[in-house]
Amino acid sequence: MKRTLIHNATLINEGTRKQGSLVIADGNIAEILTEGRPLSAPCDETIDATGCYLLPGVIDDHVHFRDPGLTHKADIFSESRAAAAGGVTSIMDMPNTNPPTTTLEALEQKQALLAEKCIVNYSCYFGATNSNYTLFPRLDKTRVCGIKLFMGSSTGNMLVDRMDSLRHIFGGTDMLIAAHCEEQEIIHRNTEKYKAAYLEEAQIPLNKHPYIRTVQACYSSSHLAVQLATEAGARLHVLHISTAKELPLFSHAPLDEHKRITAEACVAHLLFDIRDYKMLGACIKCNPAIKRQADRDALRRAVVEGQIDVIATDHAPHLLTEKSGGALRAASGMPMVQFSLVSMLQLADKGIFTPELVVEKMCHAPARLFRIDRRGFIREGYHADLVLVRPHTHWQVTRDKIWSKCGWSPLESRTFDWQIEKTFVNGHVIYDHATGVDDTCRGEELRFHA
Asked: What backbone torsions phi and psi does residue 395 show, to the nearest 5 degrees?
């Protein structure tokens, strides 16, 4: 059995920062060598990690890898390579594909595609519709990460807009319900208002997007979701919170098995605000919309204070040709998975977070929230999903560095001082900054404690 020593790193894990080394054997973390603990046996390979930080691999609970049916813009293989290059070792894929993952047959097809093509660890959501909640009891809770509920716009038939269906969904499962919350009636009224205001124009300006998909549209829907979940005693995880107004809906309590209602913030809403539309335009158009600086800053505080439990990406690639057409026609979504970790560590350098908090929200918290088996922490006996990052390494995002199939990023030309050196998935080096991605490996299916 091959033993690999990662030597002389700074380990950040469970709120601590310790100098030490770590041994990988048979895909697992075999030994953690801190505080003078010696090796139990020689190693076959040594990786010199001097000057680097060793973190648990990032678990991104919110990605759109576009497989099946939308693979002209992205696919599981291409986007899992981008994930690996960004230190992301596990992903949870969303169901709004073609066909959508809303039947047992489509779920089986998605799981087979992930097993065939994904080079990081994986799971996928089962998508709720107005009528498929009778299938929930037939889902394998050890394999399916949760139910995805669109209480906002979606593709296909995935918008759940009937109150009786919502009550069936919230009352019909003890699985985690991950909800996209935007009130469609408010969005519709705002859309008609701006169509009338710009009747003589070719398109509604892109910077009106947050005035169509407003704070109130988000709050009204999130409030309803929390109310329904509370009444039913359901596990609710509200995705991509984008407004300060929504934050009082969520508790500051620590994330544990008793916290039934949780919240996610996405990297884009923590980085950008409404002023960035001037330079980046449709490249930062997403749903829910990027909003005011005050909302961005409130989200950052909520991460620190515990109202936001998880940081994810909502990685949603589109071709640049699909990102044109103003506030109504430009596609919503952006590729973020490759640069999510370095972006959050950059905010740590600015004093907004700490590296320990970044690890908590991007690694530990998703593992706790989804009850993932033996991942998300640096612990002996856990799967060796790890990322080695080097601070004080100045570099710039250029198009030739982008691994996503869509070939662009809203972070192009941005400079970073953190570099992903190596990404380990189940003990294998699947990304090395010097050599690139090893796409011969495949990740493992995530398993959950029911």
From this structure: -150, 165
- Using the Cα atoms of residue 146, residue 119, residue 272 and residue 153 in order, give the sign of their dihedral: negative
Q: How many alpha carbons lie under 13 Å from residue 86 in its C-beta half-sphere?
A: 31
R_g (Cα) of the chain, nearest Å:
21
Token readout for 10 is 């700074």
Q: Calculate the CA 392 to chain-centre distance.
A: 25
pLDDT in tens, 310-362: 999 999 999 999 998 899 999 999 999 999 999 999 999 999 999 999 999 99
Three-state DSSP class for residue 325: coil
Residues in contact with 286: Cβ distance below 8 Å, sequence separation at least 6, in sequence order: 240, 268, 314, 316, 332, 333, 334
Angle between helices 215-232 and 163-171 (to 10 degrees): 50
Assigned token pair, 222: 């999130």
Domains and CATH numbers, the chain: 3-55+383-435 (2.30.40.10), 58-370 (3.20.20.140)
CB neighbours of 244 closer than 8 A, spacing ≥ 6?
Answer: 215, 294, 295, 298, 299
DSSP 211-271: HHS-HHHHHHHHHHHHHHHHHHT--EEE-----TTTGGGS--S--STT--EEEEEEHHHHH
**pTM given for the model:** 0.97
